[in-house]
Design a protein that fits this description.
Keywords: Oxidoreductase. It holds the Pfam family adh_short. It comes from Mycena belliarum. One of its GO terms (molecular function) is oxidoreductase activity. By secondary structure, this protein is an alpha/beta fold. The chain has a single domain, classed as Rossmann fold (3-Layer(aba) Sandwich), CATH 3.40.50. The chain is 49% helix and 11% strand. It is built from 14 helices and 8 strands. The protein has helices at residues 5-12, 37-47, 61-75, 90-103, 130-157, 178-181, 186-190, 198-201, 204-221, 249-262, 266-278, 302-305, 307-327, 330-338; strands spanning 28-32, 53-58, 80-84, 109-112, 162-166, 230-235, 291-293, 296-298. An 8-stranded mixed beta sheet has the order 3-2-1-4-5-6-7-8, sandwiched between helices. Helix 2 (37-47) packs across helix 11, helix 4 (90-103) packs parallel to helix 5 (130-157) and helix 13 crosses helix 14 (330-338). The chain is globular and about 50 Å long. The relative contact order is 0.15. The model has no long low-confidence stretch (mean pLDDT 93).
């Protein structure tokens, strides 16, 4: 599928669909990046569905605790929990997963909403460009480390847990250059200071969203058809967002004007996160490996569907598993035990 600018504008002016709801009594929901923006608005919706546990996974203690209190004031839900996780720090991700495993209990919904919009190179303590590590290494690391808990939940409670990854329509226009995708190490190239010139970083955010789509499709392809897990990618649309809060100068002015003309309210965008997490309770398989936009399954970009895109997707998956296996050896064991070779 190719998304024209006309179709994009039409989507931004389309009629909002109502938020999908279900009964989450007894279930556990985790939302990454939950203290603000889309993540926080999604937690407000989940809170109205009476989850047994609603975990706000945030980087900052004070901002996360303030979000818990705002959530209670807005919805009356008093069981929200704050868990700290810094996706720009692999050690923090491992600690988050360790604590979840140690605490025991179930995990029914994991919403991976965390992302960074960056136009200049900044390295994490782990040596990766920050936005790439957050969106395309740490988000997958969380999903893979928590996968055994979700599978155990599926077996013990006869349910179908879901992993929801937030992406964007920007993936339709994201460039993955031929020399990069045909090189020996796609992620290492993209995450290197040498590659992250100012010009290349101008397209970094769309590229991370393309890699989000690749991850969802690659993981789904490696889940046996009988595995009771649904993983999907959701596009919240162009929304008012604090993701762009660091813009300055002309960029900030242009973004402000564009928001006034086109942007959805953040709450409306969050409905897509909720859709991916709870829609089609009677037929969850409808959403397996799918891309959701405007409360419906939509087709991904032509590049993703092309032989070149499929090849890049598999290369990136293999490289990602190699990288994350060094970060945490459990990743290799989980992939070997719970996933299969793609058809």
């Amino acid at each position: 599928m190719k998304l024209s600018m006309g179709a994009f504008f039409k989507g931004q002016y389309s009629t909002a669909q109502p938020v999908v709801t279900t009964d989450l009594t007894g279930k556990t929901v985790v939302v990454l990046g939950a203290n603000t923006g889309l993540g926080f608005e999604a937690t407000k919706h989940f809170a109205t569905m009476n989850p047994g546990r609603l975990i706000l996974a945030c980087r900052n203690q004070s901002k996360g605790q303030a979000a818990v209190e705002r959530l209670k004031a807005a919805t009356g839900y008093a069981k929200a929990e704050l868990r700290l996780i810094d996706l720009a720090d692999f050690a923090s991700v491992r600690s988050f997963a360790d604590k979840f495993e140690k605490d025991g209990g179930r995990l029914d919904i994991l919403v991976e909403n965390a992302a960074v919009s960056a136009d200049t190179y900044e390295a994490t303590k782990d040596g990766w460009e920050t936005s790439l590590q957050v969106a395309n290494l740490s988000n997958p690391l969380v999903a893979l480390l928590l996968l055994p808990i979700m599978l155990k939940t599926a077996t013990e409670y006869n349910t179908t847990p879901r992993i929801v990854v937030v992406t964007s329509a920007l993936h339709y226009w994201a460039p993955l250059k031929k020399n990069v995708r045909e090189g020996p190490a796609i992620l290492k190239t993209l995450g290197s200071e040498k590659y992250c010139t100012r010009k290349n970083m101008e397209q970094r955010y769309p590229l991370t969203k393309l890699l989000n789509v690749f991850f969802v499709r690659a993981l789904n392809a490696r889940l046996a058809p009988t595995t009771p897990i649904v993983v999907d990618a959701v596009d919240p649309g162009y929304c008012y967002s604090e993701l762009r809060r660091d813009y300055s100068g002309l960029q900030a002015v242009v973004d402000c004007l564009t928001e006034k003309l086109l942007a959805f309210p953040t709450e409306r965008g969050s409905r897509q996160l909720v859709y991916g997490a709870v829609a089609h309770q009677d037929r969850p398989e409808v959403l397996r490996g799918e891309y959701v936009a405007h409360s419906a399954v939509s087709e991904v970009s032509d590049f993703v569907l092309s032989p070149e895109g499929a090849k890049a997707q598999d290369y990136i998956w293999d490289e990602m598993v190699e990288i994350l296996g060094k970060v945490d050896p459990r990743v290799r064991d989980i992939v070997a035990k719970h996933l299969v070779s793609p058809a």
